[in-house]
Design brief:
The complex is a heterodimer of chains A (157) and B (408). Chain A is α/β, with parallel strands linked by helices and 157 residues long. Chain A is 21% helix and 27% strand. Chain A is built from three helices and seven strands. The longest helix of chain A has 12 residues. The longest helix of chain B has 29 residues. Chain B is mainly alpha-helical and 408 residues long. In chain B, helix 5 runs antiparallel to helix 6 and helix 6 packs antiparallel against helix 11. In chain B, a hairpin with a 2-residue loop joins strand 6 and strand 7. The radius of gyration of chain B is 23 Å and the shape is globular. The chains are: A alpha/beta (157), B mainly alpha (408). The interface between A and B is large, with 43 and 52 residues.
């Protein structure tokens, strides 16, 4: 059974790539990079999506555009989740930051930047959070070898 | 010959290269500090003993959980999932298995559904006991600490009788559970719950109206509802500000829709509210566990689905189809259809979500864990800034940051 809110949302938000679809209980929209910030603002202000749950990325290596940035939102009033997906190219993996809209964006975008090298335009503090200062590369990219080590403290021989 | 000594590079770059004021002092707390239970580094700028601003760094327990997951079959990474929130490992197991089952379209058996719910509540009880015990000990309440940890240890041993391990159980399976309850397990559970009730009333009597405790907790570490929502807070943290947000009620999963329970909320969003909500939630968990013990149906604990459930050992040795099935499940892993899904459970800390992506093979393309501790750390400076240096300890304790989950 679909929550009643989803019908209204599907009519209110129609991205260029096509209407939203419900997948495993979550309404999913595929957006162009420049549609992200206005859509999120609309979700938050007009539809009560007050919690920005999570941001991560999927590295579809070999595909063009390569990265898919995935945002999840939750509405405490309607008790439903929405997922927004944005494809960004390898040459310029950047999307708008959600820091102006949600406080939680600051930390979560730092993690996504660490792991995938996604640049969040407008997030002034993209220092490493789970990694350390000076770490080279982005470990969750598929072309980062799992065995590669970058010890901060030299190993004892 | 020893290599020439080289200084180790600083793993963090503080934002406080320039202090706000001439006479303020920047101190570094952690990452390994006896008064914080959890590996976290707080760089604080102080005016006397007052915190002007703070910069919080996580990541000291980062061990590449998500990277490691992409190299194992869906089954093999269950032990890693255990080590996220290692205080309530069962809830991690069930949330992860729930996500994979959602993608596979597997319906777990009724007995498994009720058992998972019961064990989720058991885990919540253990997690809250640990958090409260540690928080009280840091404020010097040694008796309360020993009472709570004693009960917790009864529970650890009781869970070990079921799962074979004290802390990291690896008890969930895709499509079921590792094994059924041993004989007399529920009887022993009732004994422990009775002892819990005895000792929790002693802790209430020792602590609730204790002047020192109230002074350290009331109006300390306050967060407003608006900030809590904006910073993505869930679970006890959000409920302490008065929002009755609980996934067990809002988007019922497992058997929660059939249970009778309350969602306690706070009034101020301070440390005292979080203490009291945890105390109340434990009582609700005990109430739910007793309901579930009555409701628990008989029947199998694993679904009869050859895509994910291992065949009976007896059949593996005597029948070629089962042998091949067993071999394929071990070597290739369960075949999860291509797609993606996000499944969230109410963990003791908040919304624990698993976002998994499959391309149809036996190993995940991506497993992402939405860790409540990590998100809570993102707004922890709001509760620390403007307070006393000594208040960082109880405030940090009441957030209940778990390093394994925060840093993944």
């Amino acid at each position: 059974m679909e929550p009643p809110l989803f019908d209204g949302l599907k009519q209110a938000i129609v991205p260029a790539s096509g209407p939203g679809v419900v997948s495993h209980g979550i309404l999913v929209f595929v957006l162009a990079p420049d549609e992200l910030l206005p859509t999120v603002r609309q979700l938050r202000d007009a539809h009560g999506f007050d919690i920005f749950l999570d941001v991560t990325a999927v590295d579809w290596i070999g595909q063009v555009p390569r990265f898919e940035v995935v945002h999840h939102f939750y509405s405490t009033a309607h008790k439903v989740r929405v997922r927004l997906k944005v494809r960004v190219p390898e040459a310029d993996p950047s999307v708008d930051s959600l820091v102006p809209l949600y406080g939680s964006a600051a930390f979560m975008e730092r993690e996504c930047h660490d792991m995938y090298g996604i640049h969040f335009r407008g997030n002034a503090d993209l220092r490493p959070i789970l990694l350390y200062e000076g770490f080279v590369g982005h470990p969750l990219r598929k072309d980062y070898p799992k065995q590669q080590e970058q010890p901060l403290v030299p190993y004892r021989s | 010959m020893d290599a020439p000594h080289r200084p180790i590079a600083n793993p963090v770059r503080s934002i406080f290269e320039q202090t706000l004021r001439e006479d303020s002092v920047v101190v570094n707390i952690g990452p390994s500090h006896p008064a914080t239970h959890g590996t976290v580094q707080i760089i604080a700028e102080l005016d006397g003993e007052r915190v002007l601003r703070s910069d919080i760094h996580c990541g000291y327990l980062h061990r590449g959980f998500e990277k490691e997951c992409e190299d194992h079959t869906w089954h093999n990474l269950i032990p890693y999932v255990d080590r996220l929130n290692y205080v309530s490992a069962l809830i991690n197991d069930f949330a992860y298995c729930g996500a994979v089952e959602e993608l596979m379209g597997v319906q777990i058996t009724p007995r498994c559904r009720y058992l998972r719910t019961l064990l989720s509540e058991y885990s919540r009880l253990v997690d809250h006991l640990t958090c409260l015990a540690a928080g009280l000990m840091e404020l010097g309440a040694m008796t309360a600490f020993l009472y709570l940890v004693m009960i917790r240890d009864f529970m650890y041993e009781h869970l070990a009788a079921l799962t074979g391990a004290r802390v990291t159980y690896t008890y969930g399976r895709i499509g079921g559970l590792a094994r059924d309850l041993p004989a007399g397990w529920l009887t022993r559970m009732e004994e422990i719950l009775n002892q819990y009730e005895d000792f929790i009333s002693r802790v209430h009597a020792l602590v609730d109206r204790n002047r020192i405790f109230i002074d350290r907790m009331r109006n300390v570490g306050v967060i407003s509802t608006a900030n809590a929502l904006s910073y993505g807070y869930t679970g006890v943290m959000l409920r302490s500000t008065g929002v009755p947000h609980d996934l067990r009620k809002d988007t019922p999963y497992l058997a929660y829709a059939e249970l009778d329970f309350d969602v306690p909320v706070g009034i101020k969003g301070d440390n005292y509210d979080r203490y009291f909500i945890r105390m109340r939630e434990m009582d609700e968990s005990v109430y739910m566990m007793r309901q579930l013990a009555q409701m628990l149906p008989d029947g199998p604990i694993n679904v009869d689905d050859r895509r994910c459930t291992f065949p009976e050992k007896q059949l593996v040795y005597t029948e070629i189809e089962s042998l091949i099935n067993h071999f394929k499940l071990v070597m290739d892993g369960p075949a999860v259809p291509a797609g993606e899904c996000y499944v969230a459970h109410e963990s003791p800390n908040g919304e624990l979500g698993f976002y998994i992506v499959s391309t149809g093979s036996g190993t995940p393309y991506k497993v992402h864990c939405r860790a409540p501790s990590f998100v809570h750390m993102g707004g922890a400076h709001l509760m620390i800034d403007g307070g006393q240096l000594a208040d960082i300890v109880p405030t940090f304790g009441s957030i209940n940051m778990i390093g394994g989950e925060c840093d993944r």
